[in-house]
Write a structure and sequence with these properties.
seven-stranded mixed beta sheet; 2 domains; binds pyridoxal-5'-phosphate; Aspartate Aminotransferase, domain 2; single chain; globular; alpha/beta; three-stranded antiparallel beta sheet; Aspartate Aminotransferase, domain 1
Amino acid sequence: MIAYFDNSATTKPCKEAVAAMTEALTECWGNPSSLHRLGVEAHRRVEAARLGVAKALGAEPDRVFFTSCGTEADNWAVFSAAQKLGKRGRHIITTQIEHHAILHPMHELEARGFEVTYLAPEADGTVTAEALRSALRPDTILVSVMMVNNEVGSVMPIQAMAKLTHRLAPNALFHTDAVQGFLKVPFRASTLEADLISVSSHKVHGPKGAGALWIRKGLSLPPYLHGGGQESSQRSGTEAVPNLLGFGAACEAALPSLRADLAKEAMLRDRLRTGLQEIHGVVLNGAQAAPHIVSFGVPGVRSQGLINCLQDQEVYVSAGSACAKGHRSHVLQAMNLSSAVIDGSVRASLSRFTTEAEVDALLHAVREAVQRLT
Ligand code: PLP
């Protein structure tokens, strides 16, 4: 049995997504911009997929703009907000624990003359609304705070932060990278008070190659890609129809049992946490408030050694975040954890497909690995 605990890196596409993609590739392969029957049908299905994503977001479909991934949605939000508002102010706020899809655009904006404040997390990896309050200024034009941290599962108070931003920095737009929060921490785009929300398909059992940026009604951003006018001229480029249909189908498939699935995931996360705490030498990192992320380590043991040992038993976890291959975790560093803890930490991330048997296999494999490596 394979025990897959790298769902924050990517999830297995659900059967509904695979079926929708197969149909798109074999039967509905027209260009949605074409005016003949094949094109019209592809267009109809892309709009149905948009509706599926919008329902999962709690949003109007005409405010959901498809992208190629979460990274693109993040880049679009950050660069377009800076372009739109750069004449009104030059101050931007984000956090030290964002994904590189936010941090690297921020570094680029610094190079272009913006001043960026990076909020520090508490010891448990949560960034508080209080920390944001003290950083907001009248010349702040953008605040970008992730909803759920991808390494330690801390959940940020996004609604409170968005409200604070609008009160204390009226010129500013509020963006949240909800890639790890979407369909994990229930929210509705229409009531979250954010201006911009990024999500990604392959984290929610859809295919890789699709994401979306939700843009608040009434807010116009500079277009991200210029060309044939797709995505209401906001993001040109022929639609990746199979990916978008897979994304839509994954969202539709998740909704009917969402609450029960999240409760089950949280229960398995707690079973895992309790089991890990009983293993001598294992430490847990951070808040782990989201239902699907458990960060833990064995100080003194290198995380790659632990990953290899677990892999020998067909148990798959990742070192920190999969996207930061080989680099020391900036998130664990920002939480002021010791080098021994940081270098020995791994992340186990669950999905609605995770089973009790997989959790037990992981615990068994960790027990054996700790014996072997310490
Ligand atoms: N933001 C967060 C919090 C993530 O965890 C990830 C991926 O791990 C991304 C953004 C990037 O998403 P994508 O892989 O769709 O580009």
